[in-house]
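[retry 2/3] Sigma-70 family RNA polymerase sigma factor: previous attempt timed out, resubmitting with same input.
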Amino acid sequence: MRKDGTSRSDRRRGKRVEADELLVLVATGDQKAFEELYAVVSGPVFGLVRRVVRDPAQSEEVAQEVLLELWRSAARYDPGRGSALAWVLTLAHRRAVDRVRSARSATERELRMARRANGPAFDHVAEEVEAGLEREWVRRCLDRLTALQRQSVTLAYYDGYTYREVAERLSLPLGTVKTRMRDGLTRLRDCLGGVA
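[retry 2/3] Sigma-70 family RNA polymerase sigma factor: success.
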């Protein structure tokens, strides 16, 4: 308990209620409410982002992105689905995870490029032969599918149709097309397992 007689849970509950009210006002474009909301949520947002991202400079950047997104998307907040603080922290967590994934992806991409630069010179003939063999293997595996599975997989993966478009083109229920696709892709995966 503090000197003013409030417990830590009372203060947290008070912050939650305050954030809920402020976020509703921010959704109407109230800048003063945003300043107050910023003061309430910036600490928890930065703390969460820092735990996920770890790098202090990147954490600050992500926290600022989250708070900017909060200003832009406050109207999407639905008080019936939870507290404003929970909603804001969900935005922060998603943005932080996206940043970590992006950084990891960039690192992996750089490593792949470095490996290629240090690898043997590119052999066009060997590459064409290998690609031809892979195409032939895929053709053989496609031939092992039923005609209906092959037709669905071909429309979706070679012609670029969505499952819904495949269903319309074949005049079949969407569920039937999904089942054919799943079964066909499972059979293809099993058949192509020897390629890797």
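[retry 2/3] Sigma-70 family RNA polymerase sigma factor: The chain has a mean pLDDT of 85.
[retry 2/3] clearing retry counter.
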